[in-house]
Amino acid sequence: MTLPIDAHRLTFVDGVFSAPLSQLDGLPSGVALLPLSRALEENHEAVGGPLGRLTGVEFSPFSALNTAFTEEGAVLRLAPGTVVEKPIVLQFLSRAGEAPVMSHPRILIEAAGRSQATVIEHHIGEESAANFTNLVEEIMLDRGAILTHYKLQEAPLADLHVASIHVEQGRDSTYTSFNLNLGGSLVRTDLISELNGQGATANFYGLFYGQGRQHVDSHTLANHNAPHTYSNENYKGILDDRAHGVFNGKVVVKRDSQKIEGYQSNANLLLSDRAEIDAKPELEIYADDVKCSHGTTTGQLDEEAIFALRTRGIDRQTARGLLTLAFAGEVLGEVSLDVVAERVELAVAGKLPERFNLAGLVETAVALDDE
Amino acid sequence: MATQEMEELVRRDYKEGFVTDIESDTLPPGLDEDVIAFISNKKGEPAWMLEWRLEAYRKWLKMTPPSWAHLDYPPIDYQSISYFSAPKRDEDRPQSLDEVDPKLLETYEKLGIPLHERAALAGVAVDAVFDSVSVATTFKETLYEAGVIFCSISEAIREYPELIKQYLGTVVPVTDNYFAALNSAVFTDGSFVFVPKGVTCPMELSTYFRINAANTGQFERTLIICEEGAQVSYLEGCTAPMRDENQLHAAVVELVTLDDAYIKYSTVQNWYPGDEDGKGGIYNFVTKRGDCRGDRSRISWTQVETGSAITWKYPSCVLRGKDSIGEFYSVAVTNGRQQADTGTKMIHIGEGTRSSIISKGISAGRSNQSYRGLVKIGPRAKGARNFTQCDSLLIGDTCGAHTFPYQEIGNSTATVEHEATTSKIGEDQLFYCQSRGISEEDAVSMIVNGFCKDVFQELPMEFAVEAEALLSVTLEGAVG
Question: What is the pLDDT averaged over residues B279-301?
Fold first, then answer.
């Protein structure tokens, strides 16, 4: 179930920290990675101070609920100039118990000046589990810090998942988010970045695949509060059966935030007549020297492309599957961690109707790549 | 309502003091069922129409004004508005152009409006030189021969009650929204057009003159019906800058096309936008909707919006008929402290329906402008197609431009595309023009006109010329 990757690892089972499933040995100096409860115990002021700074109880009923009930979570603090070579995995397991459990994990990441790290937040669980995860994350990037944040959500199909991610970016910092949603029955993610320092860059990449009656909702907001800030967004949605997808992206450029660039792109693929997508890419601009654009498209697979593949002896179902994978590939191509990209590719292939048998095809391709 | 009661009502209202001075026949501010009865009575409407109005009013009382728009204005006191103002009598109007506000005349000059039209626009008493009455009569005869009905909505309610009963409120239901409900209760005038089966209206219809001649109030109601295979092009010119201040304008426009019919509806809106500090100006809350009921029918909205302190307007198409087409072309310009929240709604219901949206927004000064558009594809709209492009141009660093497109797609065979850009006039573009001896102001005007070209070419010719002129007037002083 866990990602086969050499990493520093914190594991939570139904929101409760599990020491045996965690791997905290050999942390480089300048890195503090520990469960929230222990962080609060050891150093109350340093953690308690920033906690709740980026999001209060006003943001949403769910973040208020989290603030009231949070017990556990992950704290990552990077000292100035620290570069963490190995990825950091925050693993959330959802177990099938007698009764469903609601957990309110909290993640706090403080990256000091010029520090650098990759965080993989992985949500997965037992097939028959039906728990509710209500997550709040606060991420603070100081001058020149670089953080790549993978959110790989493969929760069981009956799980409910709500997350709000609040990012604060200082001068010349770079935050890159991969919001990959494959599981859960009712999923909502709010991703907000405050670009407060000149030269700050936010990259939002997203992929969601809905099936059955899944509801996947992605809200993003890039607040350009300083001049010379950049945001770039690319979200792809694939919806099958009676799934319902929502994309609401927003770029806000404050007055006097000149020379900014903000790009937004959202493409959706509907594989079934009963699937629904609601897309709302928004621009709110109060400065004139800006380059902003957004685009959104929704459509079906290109019949001509399917035909092109069929003339090469590939049956219709496989052709459809290949094209669907290619559609997802535009976002997965940005993923620099192979283990994550492959995992998602396999998951997407695995979600395609059985007759595609593309999983095998992808495995072969992956094997070929490795050689 | 019994005649006796009605008489009592009217008498009572009079007792409470109608202002019937020489200036105009105006009801005192306030809104209640008596006021609606008074309007209905004045218009000589049948009893069912009054009932319809009262029902709308009662529903309106239970509604709340919409707050989702990106607009900032103080709450409107509906009791401080007068809901009926009869036309001023000819002898009270300015008798010649000399009596008209010179600033107004200057604007007409810039717009290139012919002298006799200027007189009409300024509300100068109509004399023999410019006889709009006879103009209207000539129109009426030509139209009558073709079988087209073109008259005021009040006349239509009296003369063609069956058509009104059949169509009024079927595109924009009484309870559609707060302002539509208010309009349904108190509308005072507007136009009615009926083009029978197979007829192509022999001329472009326009409310340009009529509205001014009749000095229509702030609540117009327009209903246009095109039967099978009929066609009409309708122009709505609100180019007369209003001198009144902070007026509420809540119109409702309903269009209906049956099989193979085509309505082209063009608007050039230039209500008074308020002064440089945002004092005064029209609050323009308008509901415009077309219903493509028939197969292969088509409705096209073209609008040039340069006026009003606040614009809240979303001309929409309900694409019900198979292979029906909806189009929306818009140029909106805001300057000073104007606010505009405008766009369109394309509701795809029928198979093979197509829509395209081209929206160009130009913000200058301290204004704020939003494009808000909905593209909804229903589960039965197989093969539906939409293309949306909305571009914003910012002039100066104190204005705002926003885009809020909504897409709700429930059909995998649909193809929907949305593109939007926000930019300013490039310094290199300006430099390029200036290096060829074109002044900065002319260069800006050229670039802006080029930016709007896609929309202007959809306008009827004389309107296009006017729109271009209007654009440079509106943006005057924005560049520098």
Answer: 91
Q: How far apart are CA B378 and CA A273, in angstroms?
A: 10
H/E segment holding residue B464 = helix B461-475
Q: What is the largest CA-CA distance in chain B?
A: 78
Is some CB atom of chain A closer than 8 A to the CB atom of B190? no
Beta-bridged to residue A338, according to DSSP, are none
The strand pairing partners of B200, in sequence order, are B231
The ipTM is 0.74
Q: Name residues 280-309 of chain A within 8 A of B (Cβ).
A: 280-300
Q: What does the pLDDT look like over B368-390, one tens digit per residue?
A: 999 999 999 999 999 999 999 98
B351 and B322 Cβ atoms separated by less than 8 Å: yes
The two structure tokens encoding residue A197: 């320092």
Contacts of A268 in chain B (CB under 8 A): 409
| A173: enclosing H helix or E strand | none
Q: What is the pTM of this model?
A: 0.79
Q: State the smallest CA–CA distance between residue B302 and chain A in angstroms.
A: 23
The helix/strand count (H/E) of chain A reads as 7, 20
Instruction: Quote the CA–CA distance of A134 and A63 in Å, as a whole number.
Output: 8
Instruction: State how far the Cα of A331 lies from the Cα of A326, in Å rounded to an integer.
Output: 10
Residues of A in contact with B392 (CB under 8 A): 283, 285
Please report, for residues A125, B32, B340, B434, the alpha-carbon distance to residue B13 in angstroms, rounded to integers and kept in the order given: 74, 11, 38, 65
Matching residue, tokens 């022999």: B202
pLDDT tens sequence across B166-220: 999 999 999 899 999 999 999 887 889 999 999 998 877 776 533 333 334 478 8
Name residue B287's beta-bridge partners: B252
Token output for A236? 């792809």
With an 8 Å Cβ cutoff, are B395 and A295 in contact?
no
Tokens found for residue B322 = 């198979």
